[in-house]
Amino acid sequence: MTPNAASTSSGPSRRSFLASSAVATAAVAGGMPLLAACGGSDGGSRDGTTSGKDAKKILPAYVASNVVTPDIPSKNGSAVGFTGRLALADLKTSVPKKLGKGGEVTIMSPFWGSPPKDDNAYYTSMNDLIGVDVVWQNQDGNTYDQKLGAVLASSEVPDVVVVPGWNMTGKIPSAIIGKFADLGPYLSGDAVKEYPNLAAIPTDAWQRSIFGGKLRGLPMPSSYVTGIVPLYRQDIFEKEGYEVPRSCDEFLALAKDATNAKAKRWACLDMKWTAFNAFGVLSGNEKSLGWNEVDGKLVYRIETEEYLEALEWTRKLFAAGVVHPDARLGKSNAADPGPKFAAGEFLIYNQDSSQWWSRTAEQATQNPEFKIWGMDIFGHDGGDPALWAQNPASIFAFVNKKAPEAVIRDVLAVANVTAAPYGTKEYMATNYGVEGTHYTVKDGVPTKTDQGNIDVMNAYVMVASPAATIAHPDFPDVAKGQVEWQQRMGAFTKKPSFYGMQITEPARWTNLSNDFEQLEDDVVRGRKKVGDVQQAVSDWKSKGGDKLRDWYRKILDENGSAAG
Q1: Closest CA to 353 of 203, 472, 443
Q2: Dihedral of the CA atoms 397, 400, 401, 403 (nearest 10)?
Q3: Is 121 left (phi over 0), alpha (psi -120 to 50) or beta?
């Protein structure tokens, strides 16, 4: 396998970052309704959201990039796609002159793997391209929340701090508002046009970058289409004559037919995430997305019949013995499924869509018959699925509130380069490094060298990203398949009431639903009963869930709904 082709197939999640050093992002099509403003209501704490007229004054103008034309345009919230071979001579220039003024900028960011040396060729070439001396303070991504909390509680905050959405718990959101600068004077309205690649970031992603009533974040955009794909061994399906299932009953029947424990073959891993999608369960990725207004009442995902039905169906798969023993032992798909999937020990699993390409690439030479493909999500009863939108950005870079204008301008110069679109010199520099040193191009396919795999990791890509793209010049059919999958699923995707809003919950309720993921895993494996979930929901209501509902109700009443 060569970690070569640029893949930005779904919004970055902790799972996809830990699974790969590649950063996954995705495109957002169109804007969302701009809603009215709402402030905090929790005893003076800075929680709530900002949208509507107030947001409209804050948001950057959107100016679509025309530097590069994708082979497959965005549709129904999909990424844009590129299926052609890459010719270095044809790369476009999206930043014609250096905007950096030569200052030094320190950036603290999560890093998965071993950070390279400070003076490596990737860092020095990027700094020369931008005109800024970036000094990286890379921190272990696995323990980043601890380092983040300590740094934000101190007086020694770097010029830029990257904060993933999954680390925005406890006091972190309040610290973001207190410690980081308002970028509105530099980016709101037409001001962003000084940075054309930032102007081409979709409005939805900027909406998510508003914290405490100010535009504070530089976003990493992502598609609002779910990134969890039921991936399957298409080659084995064709060989055995299996049909791709179109309902939960068909899936179970297929799973029983395909499983032969004596021959060490099982149908699938834990299919809980696909079950949630098949039954139309609201998203669990971010707490605000788990709420939606139904018949005038705000309902949280765990209160719905669909939630219980999805768990019960997943439980049936385990009870029927069609789930691989590895998944029966642990949490949801915690181990790397690649080797046993390649060996044919199981035929279906659900994971981040980036694995569609990565599994293809790693098996291309050693197993030429291997073919992985994405199964369309089905409605549980055989009808159309009812899918829910993910938020359009989930990782942000923030600038220190104490930074002088010169430093802020230099940070924006960095972001304007890192947000360059696929097919530009700046994109190649950001994602691949220096030709010959970090990558080579053969037959239109860029491949990282050993040095490239050391130096060109998750650094500059964390500052800001372009509206997302899927581009696999080595496997164009996979790129086409991924984009078209997103387009088909996007047609069935709706936005819940709080889509796109950057909402900070009152601290006393932020951990209220934290134990449900473990409970779900216990229920589907038969260690707990569905009745235990119902009891946990009752406890959730009495311990603050109903009060939290009232709090969200106030936001909804003052803002209106983003549902669509």
Answers
A1: 472
A2: -120
A3: alpha
- Single pTM value for the model: 0.87
- Return d(Cα 486, Cα 377) in angstroms, integer: 11
Beta strand 469-471 with 80-82 is: parallel
pLDDT digits (tens, 9 = 90+) for 289-332: 999 999 999 999 999 999 999 999 999 999 999 999 999 887 54
Are 400 and 157 in contact by the 8 Å Cβ rule? The answer is yes
Question: Rounded to 5 degrees, what angle do the CA atoms 56, 57, 58 make?
Answer: 90
- 387 vs 288: CA distance, rounded Å: 16
Measure Cα distances from 240 to 255, 262, 364 in Å: 13, 18, 21
Please list the helix, strand and coil fractions of the chain in percent, rounded to the nearest 5, in that order.
40, 20, 40
pLDDT of residue 171: 84
pLDDT at 500 over 70: yes
Token pair in block for residue 84: 């052609």
CB atoms closer than 10 angstroms to residue 527: 10
CB atoms within 10 A of CB 64: 8
Q: Is 443 helix (H, G, I), strand (E, B) or coil?
A: coil
Rounded Cα distance between 408 and 395, Å, is 19
Which residues are within 8 A (CB) of 194 and not within 5 positions of it... i.e. 6 or more apart? 99, 186
Per-residue confidence at 49, pLDDT binned at 50, 70, 90? low
- What is the C-alpha to C-alpha distance for residues 133 and 406, in angstroms, rounded to an integer? 13
pLDDT digits (tens, 9 = 90+) for 65-92: 999 999 999 999 999 999 999 999 999 9
Mean pLDDT is lowest, of 12-16, 362-366, 517-521, for: 12-16
Taking each helix axis as running N to C, give the angle between helix 476-490 and helix 354-363, from 0 to 180 degrees, rounded to the nearest 10: 160
